[in-house]
Amino acid sequence: MPIPSLQCDACMCDNERVEIEAAAAQKLEVQHHGWPKEPEVCAAKAEDYAEMVGTLWKNGETIIEPEEKFNQFAQHFHSDLEHWISEVSEVFHWRIFFVELVGHFAFSIFGPFSTPLLFLCYGTKIGLENRGFWIFKVSPPMVFQLVIWLLFAMAIVAYCAGSRENLMIIEPKFAAMCLFLRNLPIATKYAYCSTETWMSHNTKHIEFKYRAFQNLLSGWYVIPQENFEIQAEVAFIGVLGSKEQREEFTVRFLPWPQNGMDLFLMRKRIDVTSRTMFLAPTGDISNPDSWRRKPVRRRIIEDSSSPRDSPELDNSIKTLKNKMSKKSLGQMRSFVLGGEKKEGRKTMCEQAEVEKHLFQVAAAGGEVGIEDLFLYILKGISYSEKAFMPPLQRISAFFTLITVLLPSFLRWRNSGRFLGPDPLSVLFVVGVWPSNFICLWSSMLFIAVGAVDMWRRRALMRSCAAMISVQREFRRHCPAEVDMLPVLNLAHAPTVAGWRKLRQLCTEWGKFYQSRIRAFSAQFFFFLLVAVDPKLVNWNPCKWKI
């Protein structure tokens, strides 16, 4: 009788062989994807792997290991991240909020006499210089804040020395409220800085251009047009990954119909209204600089010799993208600060060509990368914002000036005197004007920027909806550049996954600014509630009348 074990080894069936080979292949695949390997395998292939990888990363005569090159790129990226991206954080730091609130309150009231307290708050002279509190170093922020403090100190002295009967009751209360509202937005802005960034403001000298761009109204209250790409880079890193990984995410469009047969096939696949049934965009925009900007459309005719698939367009997009240098965040930062004006203008012209060719590829039914499509949508939103949005800074400054002068107008109507009956009241009224104006203007700008941010987010989400339907109710309130694009081919599975990533990019873009605006809105509402309701000011429930 034969031995069973020998018989099984000699006469192994095909099914068992297939299972063993599949298990071995699965084990090899698991090891290939980074799961733990046997120590002897790692030791045997370590030298071969190092030699193979080292030859792939040669730079001149030096050999750069992939991990070392990745670390260099990460360090360079995080050095830019420290100055720009972490400037605003998702976390509200209460300690930083109270330190900045106390520091700015102290300088607003006591001026240079608050220097010992400011040293306790910030610890170094560099922190005072970066905030314009150090009077021994002349700088535009320091001169501006010193003039505001001198006028406000003059108003305080006049209020204490003069007769309060010559002033309206609302004027000192209004000055105190404005003093608080002037420092509340500043403390809120610093509270959304990361701890490392806030500490760098106290230990490193910040260049004037960066400080003026980020710390003053133009950088803190609004997202500049040049900063759109930087915020998009943050969203790309969080949603899509590195630049090499982003190339894997593409979407495929359905082509715009060129003749009657194409229109018939399009009507079978998607919903088409009677208004857009016989019209297709040409790629141009009518009235590009006005709020009536719309895509130019042509009538779909029976005979058309337009090419269906154009590989030259796809190649031209790749050629243009290869010509455009892949800028790091540091190069973007220098471009925003005005260090690369000539190269910036050249890049803008090339970007316009890329946008034009992107529309042509999409209209022909080609594939477009998610990164290019999202930047195309952002450019359209920035163009629409310039055309649609009124000059909010000028409008808010005008209404702020009326609000500041309103008590004086009421005094002039009642007593015939605009500034007051005696010189001390005149000094008080004139002294509080600059502080009140700066405070109310900054608060109104914050509110206006909140409205602009909501408009941007609605335009982003409308642009996502426009990618899956040509119905007008889904394409209303989206940029004209997005309205020109055809719908996505949802029968293509990678396109559906790409559209989901596109929607996530639209929600992730600029979320740091949204968090800051929401926090300030809540604080502003609570302060107005306390200032208006006397029951909250005099917190004594026993005296309340029900």
TrEMBL record:
<feature type="transmembrane region" description="Helical">
    <location>
        <begin position="395"/>
        <end position="412"/>
    </location>
</feature>
<feature type="transmembrane region" description="Helical">
    <location>
        <begin position="424"/>
        <end position="452"/>
    </location>
</feature>
<keyword id="KW-1133">Transmembrane helix</keyword>
<feature type="transmembrane region" description="Helical">
    <location>
        <begin position="142"/>
        <end position="161"/>
    </location>
</feature>
<keyword id="KW-0812">Transmembrane</keyword>
<keyword id="KW-0472">Membrane</keyword>
<feature type="transmembrane region" description="Helical">
    <location>
        <begin position="101"/>
        <end position="122"/>
    </location>
</feature>
<protein>
    <submittedName>
        <fullName>Uncharacterized protein</fullName>
    </submittedName>
</protein>
